[in-house]
Amino acid sequence: MKREAVQQWLDLQFGLFIHFGLYSLPGGVWKGKPITRGYSEQILSHGYLPQADYEALTSQFNLPEFDPKHIVATAKRAGMKYLVITSKHHDGFCLFDTATTDYNSTKAACRRDIVKDLSDECRKQGLAFGIYFSWIDWHFADALPISSHNSDQIPESHQKLNIAQLTELLSNYGSICELWMDMGAPTDEQSQEVYDLVQRLQPTCMVNGRIWNDKQDFLTMGDNQLPTVPLNCPWQTPASIYKETWGYRSWQVRGNRDEKIKELTNTARSVVKEGGNYLLNIGLMGNGAIQGFEQEVLEGIGDELAKEPLRRETMKRTLPRVLPDQACPKPLMLHRYTGTEYYSYRPIPTTLCWTLEQDEDTRLSIGWLSEQGIAKEQKLCLEVGGNRYCSSLQKSRTSDFFITGLQLKKGTHEICLHTIGDELKRSELVDTTIRLVLRKEETL
């Protein structure tokens, strides 16, 4: 079922990310002074505000211009196929009906369940619906204090709160296509607990890489980042219309509309072409409306995509040709990213790929060759002809066989050599200089 869910998620390609919360009301300004430090959705932290004064904004959170029908229709007009809303950001204010705290939108001036309003409208208009959820919660008394990096540990009582709120979100709002966790520094057990909860309540929901500890269903790139190496796993680029902020900022320099449309459309094309999903963010204003410039940019992107839709081209990757009885060329090296915690985020090589073209049915022996000898033992899997062959490479060895007497039919075969396990969790290749040695044994 998960493999089918992965493909369904990849087919979404392009989505609307929405940052919205109490921080939308000040819009990057506090008592008439612009807060220029940090993202505007984190104004409580970066602006050094009295927390009580910030949380009192719930009395002003009445949302006279919040129109879920228009928001979802705009996403569709932009060519988007799913929507992800910040159900709870770092400030702990919940945009959903929860029994865990009164610090939520149903108890605020608007008396609305924002998550329900948007999920219902997505269902009506045919968009998939996803949820952002922050690991950290500045409002919760037992959580760690606000820090400068937000990569904070999750005390046991805080984890219980997270599980309770996630249970509500995954139980009360229909089908969820994506759970987008963010920040924090959960333990391996805490990440697993959240992942297990998702599998129990929403087994087709895709979980992003910021669940941490390699428990994810897809890799989350850094904010506004594209891969610098070929990837071998599902991935997504989260991006904002402005790199300076994700939440609404009234004084944001918005730039030239047409240039912004061109820039973001080209980025969407690049991400989808290379195999990823593109999640483009807007920050709703404090009254609940889409800011005018952002509305025009989304519509402009939609106009461009109507002329030329997004398309994948990952299958067009050119693999080096390996031939029997000839020196093996340098492979295409595929990577995954570490999913341990935010500050260890880096690509690690896991897979080497070639293509083999056979002009006749053949029996082969396939071995490996290392330039300097294996630094430490490692188990690798060779995939060829639709079959897998595992082998343990011994420390200090420079060569050995994967298989002899392998019968391959005439035609083109992709050959992959990789470490063991799921594509998102495979260990790093000990030796990336390994090359294949193919020898013809006899023609069939």
TrEMBL record:
This protein's record includes keyword Signal: yes
The Glycoside hydrolase family 29 N-terminal domain, residue ranges: 4-305
Transmembrane annotation, as ranges: none
Annotated EC: 3.2.1.51
Origin: domain of life: Bacteria
Keywords: Glycosidase, Hydrolase, Signal
Function: Alpha-L-fucosidase is responsible for hydrolyzing the alpha-1,6-linked fucose joined to the reducing-end N-acetylglucosamine of the carbohydrate moieties of glycoproteins.
Similarity field: Belongs to the glycosyl hydrolase 29 family.
Alphabetical list of PANTHER family matching this protein: ALPHA-L-FUCOSIDASE, ALPHA-L-FUCOSIDASE-RELATED
Name of the molecule in the record: alpha-L-fucosidase
